[in-house]
């Protein structure tokens, strides 16, 4: 058994745009990323390669808040974060606040595989990238008109709009189980629209937005990062399975609908366990998500139910 699940952020399109061309583009983007990762698994590749390929496909799609199309900070910059984890070895790599890396998930994996560290930030992460032969891209690479308009709305004090509500859509992630029973998780994000002070969310923090352990499951999260950090969401789900004898679905539901709700945290997770069971749960209005298991058709959804 092998399988893959991906997400493109918690939240939904405005109702006026649901069912239209933009929704179709989101669904196509999810399908392409799912196909990229699933092709690795079908070819007996590793779960690490599968989640890397899937997340890179989403980072290269300007619809999502990761890589190209990342949201802007209040001063008009793009600060990108990513993390990856190997469930068999518990090795992990993470980068945060990078500004010139086309695919932050690739750099996070390089940190995991070619450094003595787990997390690198900002200029130091990019210095390491150069030492590994990465090509830096200009900051203009990440610009999209839609993300700039979102920043302008934040700057203008648009009533009823917050950085959180327009940043949910887009953070990306993937979890996978390969044919050898190895689990992996990866997450990548541009963060929160209008963020200040080099704010870092949960995505690059091992145990908060990203975690994988072959003894339980692999998790990638999306949503209100501060609350996911406080609740150590990804690790909590794994621990409930490993030490509390919960099933994957029980552990995910307890954390998403109980622990997060207590903290007023909005968002969701995707997770897969060592038997190939997949859970994709969210307490937001929707979550861009897709999954596929060996011998089954792809499942792609945004709203609840679908």
Descriptive report:
34% of the residues lie in helices and 24% in strands. The chain has a single domain, classed as (Glycosyl)asparaginase (Glutamine Phosphoribosylpyrophosphate, subunit 1, domain 1, 4-Layer Sandwich), CATH 3.60.20.30. A hairpin with a 4-residue loop joins strand 9 and strand 10 (278-282). It contains 9 helices and 12 strands. Helix 1 (21-42) packs antiparallel against helix 2 (47-59), helix 2 (47-59) packs antiparallel against helix 3 (104-114) and helix 8 packs across helix 9 (248-262). The protein is α+β, with helices and mostly antiparallel strands and 306 residues long. The radius of gyration is 17 Å and the shape is globular.
């Amino acid at each position: 058994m092998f399988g893959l699940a991906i997400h493109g952020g918690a939240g939904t399109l405005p109702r006026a745009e649901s069912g239209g061309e933009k929704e179709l583009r989101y669904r196509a983007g999810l399908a392409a990323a799912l196909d990229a990762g699933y092709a690795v698994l079908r070819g007996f590749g590793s779960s690490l390669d599968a989640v890397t390929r899937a997340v890179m496909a989403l980072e290269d799609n300007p619809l999502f808040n990761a890589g190209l199309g990342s949201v802007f900070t209040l001063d008009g910059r793009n600060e990108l974060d990513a993390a990856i984890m190997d469930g068999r070895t518990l090795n992990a790599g993470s980068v945060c606040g990078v500004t010139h890396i086309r695919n932050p998930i690739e750099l996070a994996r390089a940190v995991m595989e070619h450094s003595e560290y787990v997390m690198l930030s900002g200029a130091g992460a990019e210095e390491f990238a150069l030492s590994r032969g990465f090509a830096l891209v200009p900051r203009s690479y990440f610009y999209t008109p839609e993300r700039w308009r979102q920043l302008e709305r934040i700057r203008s004090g648009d009533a009823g709009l917050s950085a959180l509500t327009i940043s949910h859509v887009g953070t990306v992630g993937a979890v996978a189980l390969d044919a050898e029973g190895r689990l992996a998780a990866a997450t990548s994000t541009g963060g929160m629209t209008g963020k200040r002070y080099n704010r870092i969310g949960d995505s690059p923090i091992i145990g908060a937005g990203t975690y994988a352990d072959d003894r339980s499951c692999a998790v990638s999260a999306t949503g209100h990062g501060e609350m996911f950090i406080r609740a150590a969401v990804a690790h909590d789900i794994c621990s409930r399975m490993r030490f509390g004898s919960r099933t994957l679905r029980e552990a995910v539901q307890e954390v998403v609908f109980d622990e997060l709700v207590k903290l007023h945290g909005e968002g969701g997770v995707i997770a897969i366990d060592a038997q190939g069971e997949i859970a994709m749960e969210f307490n937001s209005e929707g979550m861009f998500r897709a999954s596929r298991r060996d011998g089954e058709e792809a499942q792609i959804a945004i709203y609840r139910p679908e």
